[in-house]
Structure prediction request, 178 residues.
Amino acid sequence: MTEPIARVAGSDGARPDTGLPVDTTDGTASSVDETGSSVDTTDATSTEAGETGPTRAPWLASLVLGVLGLAWLAGMLWSAHASIVTAGAQSVALSTAADAFPVIVSASLLAGLATSVATLDLVARRGGTLRARSLPRLAVGFGVGLLVGAAALGLILFGYGHATPIVILAVAVAAASM
Prediction:
């Protein structure tokens, strides 16, 4: 039986990156190592006809992340409000609000970040010029975080009134989402 003739990548019959001989008789990129064994060296990122490259996470994943972030913020705001309203004494309500504040701030931070990522992914897929530019991406992300923060601020002020301490806490929650 005769041995098949191997196609070579370099002029000297070796792969340029490894220096090993190339054998592509079966249609896949492979090389022969020092022991004579065939080693598969197919590039996973190759996009030639018939080959598949790595797939990017679908746009739906970032959208789901944004929706879940907003849902978590809404749930934490509702839970904190329910706990504060049902507290019997004023000192208990104040203690409950103090306990809920870090949770609300972290939920606001996550919701602002998640919706910014979802919006940036959506905008980048629609208009390709935003992909490579960092300043417009920063502006879009900041703007979306600002909108989420403004919504949280509005809900807090609507639920608790406009007293100075409440306004300060609401602004802190809004600032965390940017």
About this structure: The beta strands are 22-23, 30-32, 38-40.
